[in-house]
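Reading a protein record of the kind used here takes little practice once its layout is understood. The fold follows as a row of integers, each naming the local backbone shape at the matching residue. With these conventions in mind, the following record can be read line by line:

_____
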Amino acid sequence: MGSTSNPSMPRPSTPAGRDGLAAFLARPGKALVALDFDGTLADIVPDPERARAHPGAVPALAALAPRVASVAVITGRPAEVAVRYGGFAGVPGLDHLVVLGHYGAERWDAVSGTVRAAPVHPGVAAVRAELPGFLERAGARPGTWIEEKGRAVAVHTRRAEDPQAAFEALVVPLGELAARHGLVLEPGRLVLELRPPGIDKGVALTEYVRETGAESVVFAGDDLGDLPAFAAVDELRADGVPGLLVCSGSAEVTEVAARADLLVPGPAGVVDLLSALARAAG
């Protein structure tokens, strides 16, 4: 059994985080480890279709998963896409990995290899049809582009000449477009996602904690869309379930770093942490 004094184990900066790590180390078999995908298990890249899990991610997860109650990847991507880009299917040791795609609206279980999904919100199809012309009328900057996400639609500005200015110019008009079709606007790292309300990573995480009966939680994320999961861990702590909040470090989203108990240097740091947790739980 490991301990927080293990030199390979990072030390959380907060008392609550130290309590969460201690609870994990005391009973890893009752712990849930949940992670975002983009920016946490995979580096952020200009083209989201080229994102792939860090080379060390799957080996680290495969070493950790048999030692804990469950491992869940919670992402805004379609579950099948996250599984493919992550390389999660058919990996020994990942038999009980769960991918909660589209913020929990889709679920892939490694044990069955199948995806279960809720019905698609009708507003998504309406926005998908309207968005190209809407962006042109809104004066979107060159380099702005649309990502089709099945149960959501995202507008990226990372390829624009001034990505932040392009992003800020679209926040209000896209928020109005989302509201008109019964959707919500979720800002991220130079991306604005239009998706159904009442679905977020916090809801998905809370429901999965209840399903698994986990007695402690580790959650790692990097972006604004991960903050609902951070809030869910805070609520779980208040209910007596210790938790550790990890930020996959980025200068782009300081809000996540400010809320975290532990800051690690991007997906490579997440992989190191997962490996340290696996060794401590072994």
